[in-house]
Each structure stands twice: as C-alpha cells, then as structure tokens.
Predict the 3D structure of the following.
Amino acid sequence: MKKVGVFVCHCGSNIAHSVDCAKVAETLKDFPNVAFSTDYKYMCSEPGQELIKKAIKEQGLDRVVVCSCSPRMHENTFRNCVAQAGLNPYMFEMANIREQCSWVHPDDMEKATEKAIDLAKMAVSKVCYDEPLEKSYSPVTKRALVVGGGIAGIQTAIDIANNGFVVDIVERTPSIGGKMSQIDKTFPTLDCSACILTPKMVEASSHPNINLITFAEVEKVEGYVGNFDVTIRKKARSVDMSKCTGCGTCWSKCPTKVPSEFELGMSMRKAIYTPFPQAIPNKPVIDREHCLKFTKGICGVCSKVCPAGAIDYTIEDELVTERYGAIVMATGYQLFDASVYGEYGYGRYPDVISGLQFERLINASGPTMGHLLRPSDGKEPKNVVFIKCVGSRDENKGKEYCSRTCCMYTAKQATLVRDKIKDSKVYVFYMDVRTPGKGYEEFYNRTTEKYEANYIRGRVSKITQEGDKLLVHGEDTLLGRPVKVEADMVVLATAMVSNPDAAHLAQLVGFSYDKDGFYTESHPKLAPVETHTAGVFLAGACQGPKDIPDTVAQAGAAAVKVTALLSKDKLETEPSVSVVDQKNCAGCGHCVNICPYRAISLETIQERVNGKTIERKVAHVNSSLCRGCGACTVTCRSSSISLKHFTNKQILAEVDALCLQ
Amino acid sequence: MNPIAQEMQNIAKELLTSGEVTAVIGWEKGTFWYQSTPVMITSAEEADKLIWDEFCQPNLSKYLLDYRLNEGKVAIFVKGCDARAFNRLLQDNQIERQKAYLIGIPCPGMKDHKQAALVEESAKDSVPLAKVCQSCRYPNPVVYDRLIGSEVTPRATEPDFSDVMALEAMTPDERYAFWQEQHTKCIRCYACRNACPACNCRNCIFSDSKSGWISKDVNTSENQFYAITRATHVAGRCVECGQCEMVCPSNIPIMLMNKKYIKDINDLFGKYDAGIDIDTPTPLGHYKLDDPEEFM
C-alpha cells in the first residue's frame, strides 16, 4: 500500500477563483493510495512547505502530490521540500491546476474543479509508480563563451572576466563594438556613444581573461551545461594577425572601393578594410567577394605594400573546437527593412533615411563629418520629419510588439537637429510617446519645450517628392484633420527585429525562441537571463528590443549567473534520463538519429546464442548528455527505450486515471 | 524452361559449388500453378528447384534475417522491390552488405495470385498484375552484384495515389465505417507483419502481453489499433512491395493505409522513396535543425 499525500494550493486567488480547492482535496481523500489530502492558500510559502513536511512525518507519507502551478515554476521548490522531510525528491509529482486549469477556465468553477480533480488523480496514479532516483555529477569547465561582441557581449565578458574566469567572445564581423559603435549620442544624457563604448572595447581586448575571436561564427555546439563543445569557424581573414601592425598602408593603397556596411552604404570602404577607425582588433580583413586578387586573380597591391608581410591570400577558414562551461547569447538585433512601407518611399527617395543612417550622418566621424547633410544633394535640411513606429506596433506590415527604444532615440535625434541647425524645424509623427525610463520623460519634455519639436499624433499616409522637397501627407488625429508637411529630410524610426539567422543559431545551440525570432527567457520575471537550456544565458536585444541601459544591466545579470555556474566544481545532472533495454533492442539506430542532444550511440555487446558468442549492436544512452525529452522512447518501435520518471507504465496509469472512472 | 530460370540455376550451382556462398534464396513452384514460394537451397543439386515465373511476388530479402548468424555469404535473387527491401534492412542495421550476394532480376510485374486462384490455369493470361505491380516505379533492382536479363521500363514515373485520394474524399464517418468494415475481417494472424521487410524488431510489441496498452483480443477496436500501429511503425520505411496485402488471408487493403502514410510523409517532409539508397535518412527517423514545427 502506497501512502500518498495530496496538497492542493489556492495560489492566493490564482487557482481558488475558479477551482474549489477544498473540494479537490476532499475528493482525493477517497482515491486509492491517498493517505492524506488537504488544501492551503500558498503551498510554496514557508508555512505551506512546513505543512507538507509535517504531514510526511506525522502521516508516514511515502510520496507526495502537489496540485498547484507549472512544474517549471515550483517543481524544484517542492522536490527540495520533500527531500528535507526525508523522502527521495523524485517520489513527488505536480499537478498543474493553474496554467492548465484555473487560468484557462476562469468562468466555469464547476467544470474547472472537475478538471482539477482529474489532474490530481492522474498525478496520484503516476506518483504510485515513481521510483527513487539519484542525481549524478559532471565536471564544470571553467571557461565561458559569449556569442556576439556588441555592448551586451562586451559587458558580459568584462564582468565574467573580472570575476576571475576566462571568457571568449565570438564576433561575426571583423570588429567588436556592434550597433552601439554606429550610434552618435545616447539618450537621456547625450553622452557620445563612442566615448563610453570604446573604453569598454579596449578593456575587453586588453583584459588578461578575455580572448577576442572576431570574424568568426559558431558552427556546432555539442555537450551540455558545464561541458559544451563548441566548434567555431574562424573565417579566413587573409591577414596574418600575428604579423599585422594595423598601420593602414594596405587599405590606403587598395584600389577597390565597396559601399561601407558600417556607414550603411553612405560612404565607401576598401576591399581590405577595418569597419571603422576605432575597430578592435584594429587589423584589417580582405573582403574576398570584392578583392581583385580573389575575383580576377590580379592586383595584389596590399601584399606588395605591407611592411610587415602580413598579407596571406592562402589563409583558409579554420575550425577550432573549445570546451566551455557556459554560453551567453548576446547576438543583438537588426533593423526592420522600411522599404516594406512603399508609401514612405524608403529606398526610392534618397532623403528618406532610417534612424541608424541619421546617426551616421550626424556623427563627427561619419560620412559627412558630423554635418547633417541630405544624401541627395548634400544640402543642409531645414525641415526634418521623423516618423515613429515604422514596423513596430503594426501587425499587418511589421511586428506586433513595441520596439521600446524608438520614442527616445527619435526625441534625441530631434534634439540633435535643433541643436545643430538653429533655424531648423522638426516634426515627429507618433502613435504614442512612451518614456518609461529614468530621466526619459524629462528628456522628452525638453525636446518639445526647449527644443520646440512639433509632435503630431497620427500616421503618415504617404510621402511624395515635389521638386527637391518631400511632401509628407498625414493626419493629426488630435485635431482630426489632414496635415501636409514640406520636408527636406524624413527619418524613419525602424523597428528592432531579430537577426535573420537567430532561429538557426538557437536551434544550433539548442534553446527556444519566439515567433519573432527573439530568444525566450526561462521565466519572464524570475529568470529573465536564463534560457530553458541549462548553461545558456541571454544578454541584450537578442532576447527582445531594449536600449543600452537595459542591455548593460542584463549583461551584468547574465555574467553573475555564469560566474555562479563556473564557480562550482561539479554539477548535478538530472536522473530523469532514458535507459535502453539492451536485450530487446534490435540496434536499428533510429533513436541515434532522432536524438537532438546526440546522447545516443550504438555500442557492441556480446551475447550467447545457440552455444556461440556473437556480437551485435545496441543503443546506449550517455546519461550526461540526455535531457530526458523522450523523443527516443516514442521513435523506438519495440519500446526498448524508456524514460525514467516517465515510464510507459506511469503514463498509462495517468491515462487510466482519466478514462477509467 | 525460360532462359532467366536457366541462368538462375546455373549461377546458383556455380556459387554453391565454388563455396562462395553457403545458401541461395530463390523461388520454387508451390502447390498450385499460381503459387511460387521462397526456397532456400544449400547444395548445387537443389538448384534445379529454382524457377522464375509471373508469380514470384514473394519478397526474399526478409529471409536474410534468418541468416544473421550465418558465417558465410548468402546469395539472393532480387527484383526491384526485393532490392529496396534489402536497402531498408541495411539501413536498419539488420544485415551486413558483405554477407549477401545479390543477383538482380529486372521484373516485368507479377500477377495477382489471389485473382489467379479463381480461374483455371488455361485462363492464366487473363489474370491481372498484382495491384502494387501495376503502378511500380522501381522494377529494376536498385542494388545488385550481378544482373540477369536487361533492365525494363518502369510502368510509372509518379506514385499512384488515386486510391488514397478517394479515401481522403470520404467524410470522416464514411472513412471510419470503411476501415471498421475492413478491420472487422482481421484474424490477427500477423502474416502481414511477418512478411514485411520493415518489421524487424527482435520482439514485436504485439508479442508483449504485459505492455498494458496492447491487447491480443481479436475484435474490431483492437484490430484497428493493431492496423494503425503497424502502419505507423513502417511509416517512412515501407518499400511498397505489397507483401502485407499479398499474404493477408482476409483481403484487407493494407497497402492503402501504407500509401496514405507515404502520401502524407511526401506532403509534410518532401518526396521520399524508402530503400532507394542507404544514405538518405528516413524522414521520420532523424532530427533536423529545420524540422517543421508550426505547432510551437
């Protein structure tokens, strides 16, 4: 006879508002194997846990069911609780009567209560077949990998490194710095972006615990928390980094000009180049798509002029594999392609530009040396129109979400125009003005009051070209009348969107992402920098649109989590893993190919058949790599693999509890 | 004797005499004129038993499983579908390539022995081809060590899903009634499973009476459960040899369900023909980074 204790949680009113918790507890008393059943307002609270512990001791319970929230939320809480009372932590089951019951059936107490009772009965039936499981341990590699070298990655790496751990930054482009290096001034204090970023870049490059791996990408990730084996593709730079001094002779002599990615196509770079003057490392790469040596087999000027003999056209991509204890994803974002809005004429009218192009135009080291000049004719614009929410908050053409940064950077840009061109006028078309940050509302107020920016609430319907002017047609919804503004330049506040390959990278590393390609945190409130994959953390805009202050704060948080992980000598591994019944296994290997964690391999075993010893292949599960997803158990036709804690017998018991009433 | 049968016998004799193989798997004439049944011969004297006629539909590759512990090599005659079945077994790690000697025979299509049983031998020419042969796209062996005869032109280049589409056109109730009528006939003899080259578990779950969710009861509900489970287990691995339907004593259209799975897999994961090669992983048998996951 099993002695199961059932504990039904009200979760304040979260569950109790639509589930009669007392009735659930009362009904379960009569269910087979239930020795004790009760309900309580907050089962996860200290008194709630004490109640469970007391019942285990006083009633002699040998297994426990808590009916409350998702196991994602409190499974560990309650496992620890029953363990403290002397039970094996795996003699415990959770029935989710919140997310899967009260929250989805808020208006029908009778039915919701019935469902909660069913869920509780299923959990009791399953717990009866629970067996004590023991955790095992795996070592921790005390080295971290940060993917992405923007401000998020740089800050994460510096914080990890300052805590005494070695950290590698893998950056896709030739230099670290990211989007922040392209920005001119930062809100709300208007300090120069480069002035606050470049010292951090230098710190990252000179820190004894940080290794920069630029012009490189993550190619493959194997392993698991504490021991990720990451293969990194170091793209062929064509420049020997150990010889190059960054003197710049090569790029000054290179005859091939290519539109600069850093200047968003508004000026030219050479085929051998560093993305920007403050690049780190300040050593060039050859753009093989455009270099004459690679496209036509001619030229070779850079090689001839290089005083250090650092140019090497034969360098090839190099694959290196390194082991890391933790991975931080800091891959940043891209900007929405505004040409989707044909009515704005982005891409058609040269003087309709994106916010980031504006940053380059107003930046002292930008293509116009900081003089705000129109791309079309190089004249100074007097009337500048800003359009917000280009791609944000628009389910039809763009993204449903708010990009969070545009209200502030548009206010900042409006301020900068007014500051630089005294006789200018600025107009801002907006849907709402959102300024939820320290000093943000004050900044916005200054923009409208001191800098006299004209804010017009309404959408722009179209932009037309009239001579050398842009005619912006819109509506002022506050006054309820159409407006027409003659502009010299229009700046679009384009949405922040995920990188085009964000989903691919997430699949490669093995964690989840949302419909917009942003990386999913483990819990939106309580675990905002963790992913569902142990050992993989998030920093910055790859998790969702955010500004620099939030990004830096999140980077610090991610670094603390990484440090906490790396400071352990060994990690507990989940005992809920797959096991193979080798005598039944036919060795077909389907599970090997189906396993997303590469945890299964075929091994040779010996068997005695008809008096002879034969060898045959069967599946074998590496329990350190297995994450207990169960994909193998359902792909095995002969049911030769089973998942501990989720055995077929247990699942069938749950089904029976539901169906045999 | 037809020249192909003559050559089969000669090759068998040669291979057995030289000791290159320890056994040869082929066909011999069965009890009735419309039956050609598998035969395993181990000596050159027995080679005369081997025949080749329009009833050699039995797929021989599965019999290689009986020789898994055999130390020498086994020779086997393979039509298009036997060769695909051979690849399937290789891909499932059930046999070793170097332990088999494949003698390929391009297949003109086999007659439906169940139809033949209804007429006299004199009316042989009027017996139609087996259903799977009528739309066969791979009559020529896709793998062999030696080929007898010359390659033939396939009867079809595209899979024929007309019967599946008729099934899909039914309402769910009609479809349910249709399958219920079919599966009521099932006597759970498991001949379909035993003949299938994709069924190669050491222990079939339907032989395990303790599993808790599978029953050996012969009733419509359990029979349907068996039929669906069987079709799901061979999904993505069915080589369309039609053995299941050929051996079914209750005339259940088993291939219809298999083909429904093939069509669905083609639609969901791209066109795939099982057993054409051993390098392409089966669509349901591997994990891919870009697997569709619309449900997420």
Remarks:
- The interface with chain A takes residues 69, 92-94, 200-205, 208, 211-213, 233, 281-282, 284-287, 289-290, 296 of chain B (CB under 8 Å).
- The beta strands of chain B are 23-29, 36-41, 74-78, 100-104, 146-147.
- The two ends of chain B are 62 Å apart (CA to CA).
